[in-house]
Amino acid sequence: MWNKNIETFIGCDAEYAEADIVLFGAPFDSTTSYRPGTRFASKTMRSESFGLETYSPYQDKDMEEIKVFDGGDLELAFGNTRRALDDIKETASTILKDNKIPCMIGGEHLVTLGAVEAVAEKYKDLRVIHFDAHTDLREDYLGEKLSHASVIRRVWDIVGDGKIHQFGIRSGEKAEFTWAKTHTNLHKFSFEGLEEAVQECEGYPVYFTIDLDVLDPSVFPGTGTPEAGGVTFLELLDAMKKVSGLSIVGMDVNELSPVYDQSGMSTAVACKILRELLLLVG
Known about the structure:
- The protein is α/β, with parallel strands linked by helices and 282 residues long.
- It contains eight helices and ten strands.
- The protein is globular and about 45 Å long.
């Protein structure tokens, strides 16, 4: 199934057989409700990643010290959302079957659902840690249940009450915040309460999803639905470090839309976040 990708994310050039983590892109944004363009994220991040060093001074670790295989981008059917999610699920399932950790570059946040479906089939009693500006808890958006605005609600359909921990949330319908009070563990605006969530998740398999719009638009303007009042890069990195000690069995970084930041700053931030995530888990 896997062939070596011609252009890889920096430092992700291990062979598939020896890799502990498998990186792949899910260039899909067909349900984006505001500004599309996240389908271009993974390709752009690979190209721009070579503006980084493989070494992280934040962790004193180097990408050359871990084994990550970059499988390239999936070819997803833009006109058929369920089929695209099924392709993502099949890819993640293959990676999991080989006892490796799938790491996905979105794409809009809905792509997380396909990966979680695969992870939940292998790992029972799954926990989910979710960093985002948005609740993503609508039952549907304009009558469509498979939407980036309802992705965490669909994840809840799989894992159930009390197993989703949400941080940085600062946007959503009032009904979503009300619903979350009895069904998820939602923390508004910041990472306050993350230490307690990490303690609750200890001993369980964890899926970790990062919607990059958790960052403030002054740090990360290149996204489809920017929301003022977000966290800083260093605050996000510190939170990632806290989560990384858990048993992470799948993860993703999504919602970069490069076209909305011609400076390239947002892509540079996204690349650095991905490098740090890989080094934390690898």
